[in-house]
Amino acid sequence: MVGKLLKHEFKATSKLMLVLFAALFGVTFLCLALEWFDFDSVPLQTASGLVTAGYVLLLISSYFISLAYMVVRFYRSMLGDEGYLTFTLPVTTTQLVISKLLTAVVWLVLTGCVMIGSLVLLFHDSDFLEEVFEAFGRIFSNSGITLTIVIYLVLLLVGIFSSMLQYYTAMAFGQIFSSHKILWSVIGYFLLNIAISFVNMFVMLISGNFSAAVQLDETEVQIADMDQYLSVLNRIVGVQIAEYIILSVVLFLICRSLLKHKLNLQ
Amino acid sequence: MDILQCNHLTKRYGSVFEALKDVNLTLESGRIIGLLGPNGSGKSTLLKLCNGLLQPTSGEIRIAGMPVGVETKKIVSYLPERTYLSSGMRVRDVIAYFKDFYDNFNETRAYEMLNRLEIDPKAQLKTLSKGNKEKVQLIMVMSRDAQLYFLDEPIAGVDPAARDLILRLVLGNYDPQATIVISTHLIADIEPILDEFVFIQKGSVIMHKTMDEVRNQGTTVDKLFREVFAW
């Protein structure tokens, strides 16, 4: 059933997401096309400037648009009128939450890839991109840094999972109340944020990440030993990954429990 | 066989308002039952509880002997009183959706009913009138070979001319072994098709009779309703 849920969830969300991606690539090509012309009139220069500004704005806001859409989609399809169909399907609450979560994470990762793709297209024949690739080549020649980058990418992915689950849990909490459900969801989100900040601090102290970070600072100043620096950095990020995984599991269980035992579609 | 059992069912919103108070109700298979009562009497709340959209404060619900869950959702077909289909979908997408999730969905029957009600399967839901959207939902619900149908105000949003046609569709497309619970306040329209009825007032079941009992009393459900719920 998860497969069927995923199929319909991707189908329902693809329209807006593909429009967003097409818009981003469209403005990217427009910016590229404008580079070929040498504008000498003020109105055309202004128009060119506006297109560039629009591109920057769209690029920066793309991720937030995707994120906001995924959050709204969850609310509407689970806790709005569409929830009357969603929760009468012969599927478990676990399957419902997993399908929403996987779809959201895939679209957010794709948004990141499209943003990078757009930048690569825009700067494809400039020195800037060449320098970036050279820098990456130098970095990846050090196997220690390759590992660190992979660990950071895993952290990013796990972070997306836990942040989506934080939104979902907050909405599952807000729907318990008879009125002002959205307001309670926002309050729930901030309460979760406070709780997670405390957990972060606690984990940093007991895992030794705090003292490791201090050590890292000193190492950075001395730039004494790159391998030692990376090893400390990997350890810090490794602990963060473990923390995010545990946090995601806990948030998933809370969200599922609230939707299963406290569902309140009035 | 009992298809629905509500035992000491209570639903409280907040700490004060009791939408249902200690409801005990047993419905048998193969019956068409009217769930009747004025606005705010608890009809929709009862149907939502039976579909797992609300959780009871106390008491229990059993459908075909099972607690409300995935297994009961396979055999229950529910029409809520609001539009639950995404407006961006086309009618044929809705059919594909129901076909994917419900093993007992009859696609041929759905297209036949759409054809009879002159609704284009290619139409987008947002382009349909409110009445036609309600008809599409009803067609989806009645195209399932379910054991228990819950229809919450199925004819409230359509014109009187379409009501007869819809009621004929309801009657013509269900297995006589199945049970239909219809919640409505348009009693005169549905009275001819009922086998029994339940009156619900302020969250309590105050009357549960068969149509034979009503006929033997020389009255009608409509008249009884006006007497019982007179202001």
Structural class, judged by helices and strands of chain A?
mainly alpha
How far apart are the termini of chain A?
26 Å
Q: Figure out the total of helices of chain B.
A: 9
How would a crystallographer describe the biggest sheet of chain B?
A: 6 strands, mixed
Q: How much of the residues of chain A is beta strand, in percent?
A: under 5%
The string of secondary-structure elements of chain B, in order, is EEEHEEHEHHHEHEHEEHH
> How does the helix and strand content of chain B classify structurally?
alpha/beta
Report what the structure shows.
The complex is a heterodimer of chains A (266) and B (231). Chain A is mainly alpha-helical and 266 residues long. In chain A, helix 2 crosses helix 6. Chain A is 87% helix and 0% strand. Chain A contains nine helices and no strands. Chain B is of the alpha/beta class. Chain B has nine helices and ten strands. Chain B has helices at residues 43-50, 70-75, 91-101, 107-116, 130-142, 160-172, 187-190, 211-216, 221-228; strands at residues 2-13, 17-28, 32-36, 58-63, 66-67, 76-79, 148-152, 179-184, 196-201, 204-210. In chain B, strands 6-7-8-3-9-10 form a six-stranded mixed β-sheet, sandwiched between helices. The termini of chain B are far apart. Classes of the chains: A mainly alpha (266), B alpha/beta (231). The A-B interface holds A 1, 4, 7-8, 11-12, 15, 77, 81-85, 87-92, 178, 261-266 and B 13-14, 48, 51-55, 70-71, 73-74, 76, 78, 80, 82-86, 88-89, 93, 97, 100-102.
